[in-house]
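Appendix B. Worked example

We walk through a single record from start to finish. Start with the input: the chain for Tetratricopeptide repeat protein, Thalassomonas haliotis, length 282.
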Amino acid sequence: MLFIIFANGVFQAHAQSSTTEAEQISKPLYKPFIERYILDELKQLRQDQQAMKSELIEKVSVARLDASDRAIRYTADTTNNIFYIITAAASLLVLLGWKSLKDIKDNIELITEKRVETLTVEYEKRLDTIETALKERSAQIVAAQQDISDNALVHSLWMRAGLEKSEHEKIKIYDQILEVNANDVEALTYKADTLLDLDEDSWALSLVNQALENDSGYALAYWQKACAEAKLELYSEAIADIKQALELSKALQEELLTELYFENLKDHPDFNTLTAGISSGA
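Next comes the structure step. The output line below is what the pipeline stores for this chain.
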């Protein structure tokens, strides 16, 4: 029993001494490890900062070097271009024979004056052309207005002639129409017809001949000419003009047998043959 108590006391004393030694050993060893870790981290951070600083300095140096190269290259190119321009200008002056700025000014003024003179002549020609065209157009407009006025006047005169009963007044109206247009074929022919009613046969024949000179295809003029020739006893000529009138206008066939001025042609064989052929054709 004593042995057990003694052993227990020895064991407890040994355990207490072991605990005390462990505490004495662990305390000195723990703090140096932490300090060493912190020192290593600080050292690594300083190294990283130093590397970053070196890299930044290198990049800044490269950028400055590139900027300097570009500035030097731009300056060199600009200088070369200026020399090229000066050389080209000097060569041009030599080729043109200009020796000074006064020569350049004089030549520029001369060239400008020639160009202005050329443009002035050109624009004068254009203005003359435009003026001529405007005059022609104005003349055409005036002529057209005059034609419209004349046509209106002639139309009113024809209306009056159709309503007029007096042969002499009709002749006056036809004369007014001929004053507007001396070559009016219808006015000449109708005036000749009126003159036949007044027994002015020769005058009427002269008028229809004038009308046929202006229009050789006017059938009524041949008809009135035949009437005048029949009254003047020019029977062969009258029958020939009747045939011509009928060829130009078939509508005159209906008046052939009723025309009063053809009464003295009814005994002529050629006239009878003509009327017989028209009657058989009808």
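Two observations about the output. The chain has two domains: 8-97, 165-281. DSSP finds eight helices and no strands in the chain.
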